[in-house]
Request: fold
Amino acid sequence: MFIAEVVGNVWGTRKHASLRDRRLLLVRPIDPLTEAPLGDATMAVEYGTGAGPGSVVLVMDEGGSARSVLKDEKAPIRAVVVGIVDAVTSGGKVKKYD
Reply:
């Protein structure tokens, strides 16, 4: 799992049947305290969180677990947004997100 910022939406005119009616988001890993980017953006399936561009989210980045969240073992996914982050506490520091 990692914390990321949603940096965009992904649209596709054709999707695998298991992704129909699912929103696809572009997420970029960040340092949760400084918000500095930590890597390249990747696509993740949004799972009922209401997340969108600008949201700071918790991403499950393991195919088998991501498919379990969607309850579809044949879904062609690796990452799924499982929550919106309100705050992070680490080493006595607290970072709150709007």
